[in-house]
Amino acid sequence: MEIKVDNSGERIDSYLSNVTDYSRTKISKAIKDGFVLVNNTVTSSSYKVKEGDTIIISIPEEEINIEPEKMNLDIIYEDEYLAVINKASGVVVHPAVGNYSHTLVNGLMHHFNKVSKEKTIRPGIVHRLDKDTSGLMIVAKDDKTHELLSEMIKNKEVDRRYLALVWGIISHEKGRIEAPIGRDINDRQKYTVTDLNGKNSVTNFSVIERFHDVTLIECKLETGRTHQIRVHMNYIGHPIVNDSVYGKRKIINSFGQMLHSYSLNFVHPITKKALSFKQEPPKEFYEILETFK
Predict the structure, then answer these.
(1) CA–CA separation, 117 vs 134, rounded Å?
(2) For residues 249 and 234, is the Cβ–Cβ distance under 8 A?
(3) Which of 107, 127, 198, 274 places its Cα 20 to 30 Å from the Cα of 55?
(4) Which CATH class is domain 75-155?
(5) With contact defined as beta carbons under 8 Å apart, do 183 and 197 qualify?
(6) If we measure between CA atoms, which residue out of 137, 133, 152 comes closest to residue 241?
(7) Among residues 8, 28, 50, which one has the least CA distance to residue 16?
(8) Looking at residue 157, what is its pLDDT?
(9) Alpha helices in the chain (DSSP H)
(10) Integer Cα distance of 228 and 191 in angstroms
(11) CATH topology assigned to domain 2-57
(12) Catalytic one of 13, 53, 130, 243
């Protein structure tokens, strides 16, 4: 990973923990072990970054042993290269440090004979959904397919669309949110729109229907930042209904945020066949929606 510094004066361990997904502890260890270079030179954790510095991070991928677990998977499509899964709300996608069980990845490892990048913490996972976001996901079964799909997403060749119920009435029919997203320096569990450490992020949306005090919208992603739709909609004053992290509005029940990945369209990276999938939201989504009609 290469990072171009755009401000000065902050300790490098603090700076990198804010602009990456690594913890400050892991960054400090990586610096000590020589996996972080500043302008092609090893550094120390106390180094204060300068505008224009080029930082290269080359932390080795952690090899872990993820145990397969029997799990009910809703498989929408499957061939020898990839699968499309309908993920339930409340299911964590992949293990994290200290928690290697009861995730979608554990279920994938049990169901499929093989998935891509099996020695990493996110085997098979080409793109993620938040724990309480439901809907369609692509799973890669081999490394070549994984790399090709990742490149397609990077090049905006995978059309991903979401249904979202947001607070407030959106008066215009369509909108485009282009605002950089980065980790919230005051709360590492959250992300925010920020020029300090934000990465380019674009969400397009269109209104489907307006109800009492809420609006049902379709969101189309151009980028795929963590919590992107949730952060962007909160940024414009229309947070996702039932989102316990962003928006600070009334929480209706324990179902989670009203966000569902309902449409995927892409050309199969190996067979070159055009694939198109749509998936209705779960019944809990409709039950909450009904309360606003």
Answers:
(1) 24
(2) no
(3) 127
(4) alpha beta
(5) yes
(6) 133
(7) 28
(8) 96
(9) 12-19, 24-32, 104-111, 143-154, 228-235, 283-290
(10) 8
(11) 3.10.290
(12) 130
Asked if 86 and 261 touch (Cβ cutoff 8 Å), the reply is no
Edge to edge, the sheet with strand 54-57 lists 2-4, 54-57, 36-38, 41-42
DSSP 150: H
Residue 159 annotated in active site = no
Q: Do domains 75-155 and 161-260 have the same CATH topology?
A: yes
Q: What are phi and psi of 285, to 5 degrees?
A: -60, -50
β-pair type (214-221, 159-167): antiparallel
Instruction: Assess if CATH 3.30.2350.10 describes domain 161-260.
Output: yes
Q: Are 76 and 32 in contact (CB under 8 A)?
A: no
Planar angle of CA 229, 287, 191, nearest 5 degrees:
20
Encode 223-290 in three state secondary structure: CCCCCHHHHHHHHCCCCECCCCCCCCCCCCCCCCCCEEEEEEEEECCCCCCEEEEECCCCHHHHHHHH
- For the stretch 106-140, pLDDT in tens is 999 888 878 887 667 778 889 989 999 999 999 99
What's the whole-model pTM score?
A: 0.81
pLDDT (tens digit per residue) in 249-285: 889 999 999 999 999 999 999 999 999 999 999 999 9
CA atoms of 206 and 198, how far apart (whole Å):
24
Cα separation, 42 vs 59, in Å, equals 13
> Position 240: which residue type?
I
For residue 181, pLDDT beyond 70: yes
Q: Of 163, 192, 165, which is closest to residue 293 (Cα–Cα)?
A: 165
> What 3-state DSSP class applies to 86?
strand
Does position 238 have pLDDT exceeding 90, yes or no? yes
